[in-house]
Amino acid sequence: MLDAVLNFYSIGLALLGLAALYRAYSGPSATDRIVAMNMINTAVILYILIYAYRFGQDHYVDVALLFVMVGFAATLAVLKFLRDGRII
Questions:
Q1: What is the pLDDT of residue 27?
Q2: What dihedral angle (degrees, nearest 10) is formed by the CA atoms of 40, 19, 2, 52?
Q3: Given CA atoms 10, 14, 19, 24 in this order, what sign does their dihedral have?
Q4: Residue 56's domain spans which residues?
Q5: Which CATH number covers residue 68?
Q6: pLDDT tens string 8-24
Q7: Is 52 exposed, middle or buried (0-12, 13-18, 19+ CB in 10 A)?
Q8: Whole-number Å distance between alpha carbons of 21 and 33
Q9: For 36, which of 23, 61, 62, 87 could close a Cys bridge (C-beta 3.0–4.6 Å)?
Q10: What is the distance between the alpha carbons of residues 70 and 31, in angstroms, rounded to a whole number?
Q11: Would the CA dihedral through 54, 20, 32, 66 be positive or negative?
Q12: Domain count of the chain?
């Protein structure tokens, strides 16, 4: 039963990722693209965590945490670049 639910969530995450990818490509503003890239990052992180749980690979949780930190830092860098015109 749990495997069926996790499969359903995996398919939902894939569809969410495709919808966010479309929004990132066709978004009329930079804000739409940033939000879409954060959605894609979140979907990838959740998929990694589902994979780690299903197959008992506990070390993939560290990979998901690394994705969280890098995604947060990248979002801040892009927002600072849009505000100031430079990252540093």
A1: 84
A2: -20
A3: positive
A4: 2-84
A5: 1.10.287
A6: 999 999 999 999 999 99
A7: middle
A8: 9
A9: 23
A10: 19
A11: positive
A12: 1
- Give the CA distances from residue 14 to residues 40, 43, 51, 81, in Å, rounded to whole numbers and listed in that order: 9, 8, 13, 30
Q: Among residues 70, 83, 80, 85, which one has the least CA distance to residue 40?
A: 70
Q: What is the DSSP string of 59-87?
A: THHHHHHHHHHHHHHHHHHHHHHHHHS--
Kindly state the tokens that stand for 24: 């990132």
- Locate tokens 């929004």: which residue? 23
Query: Cβ(45)–Cβ(39) under 8 Å?
Result: no
As a whole number of angstroms, the distance between CA 74 and CA 71 comes to 5
pLDDT at 62: 95
